[in-house]
Each structure stands twice: as structure tokens, then as C-alpha cells.
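Example 9 (inverse folding). The structure is encoded as follows.
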């Protein structure tokens, strides 16, 4: 990550970056996410948009007091970064945990969020399957980080994508991720995953919303329920695993472009 700026928000030093020029779009990562996880999406969007990316607490270059995380806290970080970047209104894209943060912000600050795109999001972290998964993540983060990275790779990417890589390449990627990961931070984010509950906030969202599910997602399987809970939300599926914008970047960008065209035509 380069050219980061730092912004003080509630005692945290939040790192963020600004790319391109044009109408503002803010990208909010999922658990443990950093800019690199978006693949080519940032540069593609930045051809015609001002893209704002940030590391909310627990990831990347952001530092804080190490305390427990909450959706309102992270939503304040996103809002503060957008304002510091010069934007009072913006389109907002959230992935997985970032989708919950985005819903929180759109619910509590509707005047700021022009539209929402929610990718592989979920309503409730204590849904039976998700709870089991997040608890396993937490246990492996504490006891066997290499095993956690293998599990995450297997569940976040499609079998076809992984099989295209040879074993040495895949091992290098996973080892690099082990070294680069903020383990204390990702543990705090997984603890927040378990506490996510936006079943009250989602029905209050009033901005145009696109919910994108990843048809081969093995991490979040409840994205349709998120779409059904938001009034008027448009639901689309792309052929990819949980990190759909990474594997299926072109299809992801196409879905966003079509959504924006439909909005402009109304």
C-alpha cells in the first residue's frame, strides 16, 4: 500500500487512499481485507470515478488502542474518511463484514450515502453455519495460523481458481499472506463478525441498493436474505467465490455499471 493518508477518528489513526477522479465511490473491505484484495477493481473504477479506500480498525496501516470493534465505530471511520476526502455524498461498496458496515452507515447517515453495493454480505453473524465458521476461524487464528490461511483459501476462492495454480505458487501466496496479516487485528474483526446483527438496520435503508451474491461462495451463504431485507434492493449473482471482485472482477464491474445505468434511467 502506498500514498496513504492518516486521519484521527475516535483515537484511531485510520489509513486511507484516494484514486482517480470523478464521482466518489468508497470501498469497504471484508474481514482482514486491504486494497490488494480488490484486485484490478480499484484501477478499473478509478478510470471514471474517485475511488476512496481505507483500512478500518484491525487491518492494514491503521492503528488504534486494540479494543473491541463495533459496526458504529467502523461506520464512523468510513464516514470520516469520505468527508476528509472532500465528499459529502458518495456511492458505497461493502464486502462481507464491510457490507454490514456499509448498511450501518446508510441506515444512520442516509444523507451521505447515494447508493449501496453489497457484495457477499450477511445479516446476522450468529446464523448457525456462520457462527460455526467464525468460531473455527477464531480458534485457528489463536492456535494454527497456517491452517487458518489454508481454510480461508479453500473457502474464499473457487476450486477452479485454486487448481489453476501450481503448489509452489499457492504456498508462496499463503506464506506471504501469513507474514502480511495483522493477526491481532483480524482476530478482533472475527469477533465482530460473530456480533454482526443488522436485521433492524437493513429494512431502514432507503437509497438505491444492489446486492451481489457470489454463486460459488463457501463463506457466506445468506446473501439473498440480506437482499430481501432491504426495500427495493436489486439482487444479482456473479459466478465466483467469496472474493468475487478478485476472481470475477469484470463481471463484478459489469454488475455495478448496469446498476448505475438503471439508476440513471429512472
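The amino acid assigned to each position is listed next.
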Amino acid at each position: 500500500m502506498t500514498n496513504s493518508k492518516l486521519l484521527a477518528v475516535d483515537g484511531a489513526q485510520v489509513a486511507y487512499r484516494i484514486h482517480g477522479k470523478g464521482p466518489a465511490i468508497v470501498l469497504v473491505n471484508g474481514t482482514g481485507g486491504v486494497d490488494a484484495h480488490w484486485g484490478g477493481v480499484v484501477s478499473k473504477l478509478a478510470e471514471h470515478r474517485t475511488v476512496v479506500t481505507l483500512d478500518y480498525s484491525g487491518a492494514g496501516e491503521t492503528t488504534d488502542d486494540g479494543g473491541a470493534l463495533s459496526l458504529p465505530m467502523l461506520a464512523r471511520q468510513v464516514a470520516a474518511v469520505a468527508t476528509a476526502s472532500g465528499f459529502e455524498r458518495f456511492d458505497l461498496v461493502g464486502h462481507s463484514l464491510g457490507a454490514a458496515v456499509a448498511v450501518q452507515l446508510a441506515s444512520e447517515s442516509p444523507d451521505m450515502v447515494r447508493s449501496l453495493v453489497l457484495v457477499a454480505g450477511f445479516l446476522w453473524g450468529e446464523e448457525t453455519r456462520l457462527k460455526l465458521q467464525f468460531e473455527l476461524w477464531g480458534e485457528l487464528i489463536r492456535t494454527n495460523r497456517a491452517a487458518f490461511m489454508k481454510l480461508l483459501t479453500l473457502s474464499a476462492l473457487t476450486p477452479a481458481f485454486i487448481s489453476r495454480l501450481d503448489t509452489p505458487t499457492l504456498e508462496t501466496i499463503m506464506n506471504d499472506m501469513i507474514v502480511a496479516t495483522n493477526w491481532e487485528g483480524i482476530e478482533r474483526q472475527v469477533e465482530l463478525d460473530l456480533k454482526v446483527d443488522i436485521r433492524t438496520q437493513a429494512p431502514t435503508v432507503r437509497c438505491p441498493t444492489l446486492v451481489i451474491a457470489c454463486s460459488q461462495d463457501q463463506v457466506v451463504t445468506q446473501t439473498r436474505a440480506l437482499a430481501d431485507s432491504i426495500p427495493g434492493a436489486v439482487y444479482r449473482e456473479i459466478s465466483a467465490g467469496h472474493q468475487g471482485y478478485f476472481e470475477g472482477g469484470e463481471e463484478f464491474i459489469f454488475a455495478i455499471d448496469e446498476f448505475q445505468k438503471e439508476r440513471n434511467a429512472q
